[in-house]
């Protein structure tokens, strides 16, 4: 990878993170007190709690933001521990939507044709609108920048697999899987976004840079990396908030401890399921199925 490609890659990550931040912040402002009310009223049962976690995470594209907010609500006494645990589980499931966006939209649609109108319309609302309308415009701009970043990442990895051999960097088997899982976790901690790590991983796999097994290990590592958000949120928190954060850490660590040893078999099942459901048998699609399977299986 030459300097130009490296700078494009870094810029793509920057655009992706900026888009997610604008989209998340805009939607939270637009929702206003409704977000807090939704969490309070939609967590009266375990299924409602999971559903609200999935829905809100899918909308704001940030499980970290939802988990951080949920722990904050527990700390303030607005949610009890039981309600928070189900929302956190739902947030972990909801983050799988990022994988599907990358797999189904990122490689099948002209992303610039999707992004540019969103940015244009969003800026109009952001500048000319007020209150919630302006916040929705900000979210729409973030949506467009999100896809521009994905487009840059896709172009950065295109054709790179023919000239960039990563297979020989690590040993085969358990050691190689563990190394790539660690890379996924470290990237997530550094960028404070599992979605960004997933975008990088899926586009690298689609470009032939990452072997499928290595990419799957990074997906699991990204789940472990998100636990840093919960750990940051508990400083000075109440015992209930600390227990809520501990549930998130336990959920992802148990998922990793079970999924990593069984990774080749889960990955094979994901490929079979992708074919059975009629999805194109591409690396990004297989990884999206893999991510979804591990999230739902761990919750069930």
Q: Helices and strands in order, then pairings?
A:
Elements: H1 3-31, H2 33-41, H3 46-60, H4 63-75, H5 81-94, H6 96-105, H7 111-128, H8 132-157, H9 174-191, H10 194-206, H11 212-225, H12 227-233, H13 239-259, H14 263-276, H15 283-299
Give an overview of the whole structure:
With 300 residues, the protein is mainly α. The chain has one domain (3-299). The chain has helices spanning 3-31, 33-41, 46-60, 63-75, 81-94, 96-105, 111-128, 132-157, 174-191, 194-206, 212-225, 227-233, 239-259, 263-276, 283-299. The protein starts with a helix and ends with a helix. The mean pLDDT is 78.
Give a short overview.
With 300 residues, the protein is an all-alpha fold. It has helices spanning 3-31, 33-41, 46-60, 63-75, 81-94, 96-105, 111-128, 132-157, 174-191, 194-206, 212-225, 227-233, 239-259, 263-276, 283-299.
Radius of gyration: 19 Å
Number of helices: 15
- Kindly state the number of beta strands: 0
What structural class should be given to the helix and strand makeup? Answer: mainly alpha
Instruction: Describe the sheet with the most strands.
Output: none
The helix content, as a percent range, equals over 70%
Low-confidence stretches: none
Q: In percent terms, what proportion of residues is strand? A: under 5%
Mean pLDDT: 78
- Gross geometry: globular
Q: What distance lies between the first and last C-alpha atoms, to the nearest angstrom?
A: 42 Å
Give the total of domains: 1
Order of SSEs: HHHHHHHHHHHHHHH
GO cellular component, one term: plasma membrane
Protein name: Na/Pi cotransporter family protein
Keywords: Cell membrane, Membrane, Transmembrane, Transmembrane helix
InterPro entries: Na/Pi_transpt
